[in-house]
Amino acid sequence: MLPDFIGYLAETKANIRTDLYDRAVPLLSDFGDGRLEVMDRHGVDYVVLSLSGPGVQIEADTARATKLARRCNDRLALETQKRPDRYGGFAHLALQDPSAAADELARCMNDFGFKGALINGETNGVYLDDRRYDVFWERASDLRAPIYIHPGNPPDHSHMYEGRPEMGARPGAGRSRPAATPCG
């Protein structure tokens, strides 16, 4: 966790017990001795770190999301380079712009030695199988980049329902039903 991203993490607060959430931010923010002590105590030699929470994929402003993702990756690279024997990194990507996300993935893997990326299953209601993401998936394949898809809460309104009001309605809503007729 990085300070610029705590607001995004707060979006998940409803899913986490308050006492756990309050303890999580300091633990997730530790790149030093505290994290290493916990790793050693549990026999963990190496971890691949990634930003926690929904991150920039819930950001409405594409330019801001792209800028923050890059800042996150730069900071994670600094931390992983301090302890390359203990830490690796997964890129944080702003999939609002799939082409820019593909470029950022390549930068992180080629320049920083990141192991791949962690992304959420949807970005602002658009699922990862939407054709707009083809450029991203093609580049990830070319890079042989592992992509961890983090599950999340479903969006309030999915992109796949746009222009299809019948798909977003409650079952039976808006339909007229024939009047019941008594039998026999």
Structure description:
The protein contains 7 helices and 6 strands. The chain is of the alpha/beta class and 184 residues long. It has a single domain, classed as TIM Barrel (Alpha-Beta Barrel). A 4-stranded parallel β-sheet has the order 1-2-3-6. Helix 4 links the parallel strand 1 and strand 2 (87-92). It is globular. It starts with 5 loop residues before the first helix and ends in a 16-residue tail after the last helix. Residues 169-184 have low confidence and may be disordered.
Instruction: Give the class from helix and strand content and strand pairing.
Output: alpha/beta
Strand order of the largest sheet: 1-2-3-6
Along the chain, the helix and strand elements come as HHHEHEHEEEHEH
CATH architecture: Alpha-Beta Barrel
Q: Which CATH first-tier class would you pick?
A: Alpha Beta
Q: What level of helicity do the residues show?
A: 40-55%
Rg over CA atoms: 21 Å
Summarize the structure.
By secondary structure, the protein is α/β, with parallel strands linked by helices.
Main attributes of the structure:
single chain; 184 residues; TIM Barrel; four-stranded parallel β-sheet; 6 strands; 40% helix; globular; disordered C terminus
Architecture blueprint of SSEs:
Elements: H1 6-9, H2 18-28, H3 33-41, E1 47-49, H4 62-82, E2 87-92, H5 98-112, E3 116-120, E4 122-123, E5 126-127, H6 134-143, E6 147-150, H7 165-168
Helix pairs in contact: 4-5, 5-6
